[in-house]
Amino acid sequence: MNRMMEENTNMEYALEVRGLTKHYGSFVLDQVSLQVPYGMVVGFIGENGAGKSTTIKAILNLIHKETGDIYILGHPMQRDGKPESDSAQWKEQLGVIFDECNMPAELTAKEIHHIMKEFYRTWEEKKFFDYLKQFRVPADKKVKELSKGMKMKLSIAIALSHDSRLLILDEGTSGLDPVVRNEIMDIFREFIEDGEHSVLISSHITSDIEKIADYIIILHQGKVVMEETKDDLLEQYAIIQCTKEQMTKIPADQIIGKTENTYGAHVLVKGAAKWKQEGYVVDRASIEDILLYIVKRDEV
């Protein structure tokens, strides 16, 4: 049982993954476990090739997993080793946004609305067209005529318009300009405010994650290597600027990552206040810094 589970033993989870394993050639998704509590945004980050998209595809039964248990909104994604029926009513409460719009290229947003209205019993026409207007997505243009950013906004509008309780985004804000991304982040915060909705967002744009997430999960080389509240990450982790001689006085087991050059070293550590008290020059570590230092630590 990992830290988040221990701290939230009395909470229900919108998403729970236990011991997920998947092999792809030499790559292994190795016993990945994670939880997304209700009323929370969980940021899922890692370098390219870390296994984020593989994890999400396995969660959604888009690829076969070898081991592991997955529960979405309290429902198992498999029963007796077989995927749950696609007709399961609770699946209407799951919104999924990928880095590409998967709608047929020849359809317009208005035509997509008519299809979604038949597909989802909980489809909300007004909400959908309100989002199109807010995102400035033309309702009468074909998907193939939309820019990448417009396609992403269309995907987000669809995901938010059928009574979703859990949103899962795999690079779902890629291709959007900073102003629109900021607008989307605000919508996601409003989405979870009632404590009954949740978001799992995978993104390489760590500034978005830093703004919106309550928890951060870092995946590296197929393993969860860090799982902390965002506040703990930003308050506790720091980068020490020091000489190489000073670095030798820092216990090796307290060094999370480091970089060295001719003039000295930068060392990522936990316990910012402690190192300040000991006289070191300490800088705040961003989420991007923490990820980069972890990746560099294991580079061959």
Structural overview:
This protein is α/β, with parallel strands linked by helices and 300 residues long. It has two domains: 219 residues, P-loop containing nucleotide triphosphate hydrolases (Rossmann fold, 3-Layer(aba) Sandwich); 65 residues. The chain is built from eleven helices and 16 strands. A six-stranded mixed sheet has the order 8-9-10-3-11-12, with helices on both faces. A hairpin with a 2-residue loop joins strand 6 and strand 7. Helix 4 runs antiparallel to helix 5. It is elongated, with a radius of gyration of 21 Å.
Task: Supply the key terms.
11 helices; 16 strands; alpha/beta; six-stranded mixed beta sheet; Rossmann fold; single chain; 30% strand; four-stranded antiparallel beta sheet; 300 residues; elongated
Task: Describe the secondary-structure layout.
Blueprint: H1 3-7, E1 13-24, E2 27-37, E3 41-45, H2 52-59, E4 67-72, E5 75-76, E6 78-79, E7 82-83, E8 94-97, H3 109-119, H4 125-135, H5 148-159, E9 166-170, H6 178-192, E10 198-202, H7 206-212, E11 215-220, E12 223-229, H8 230-236, E13 237-242, H9 244-247, E14 255-261, E15 264-270, H10 272-277, E16 281-284, H11 287-297
Parallel strand pairs: 3-10, 3-11, 8-9, 9-10
Antiparallel strand pairs: 1-2, 1-4, 4-5, 6-7, 11-12, 13-15, 13-16, 14-15
Helix pairs in contact: 4-5
The proportion of residues forming helix, as a percent range, comes to 25-40%
Task: Indicate the mean pLDDT.
Answer: 88
Order of helix and strand elements from N to C terminus: HEEEHEEEEEHHHEHEHEEHEHEEHEH
Strand order of the largest sheet: 8-9-10-3-11-12
Major sheet characteristics: 6 strands, mixed
CATH architecture of the largest domain: 3-Layer(aba) Sandwich
Q: What is the tally of helical segments? A: 11
User: What is the CATH C level class of the largest domain, in words?
Assistant: Alpha Beta
Write down the domain tally.
2
- Provide the CATH superfamily of the largest domain: P-loop containing nucleotide triphosphate hydrolases
Q: Which structural class is indicated by helix and strand composition?
A: alpha/beta
Beta-strand content: 25-35%
Rg = 21 Å
Total strands: the figure is: 16
Uncertain residue segments = 1-10
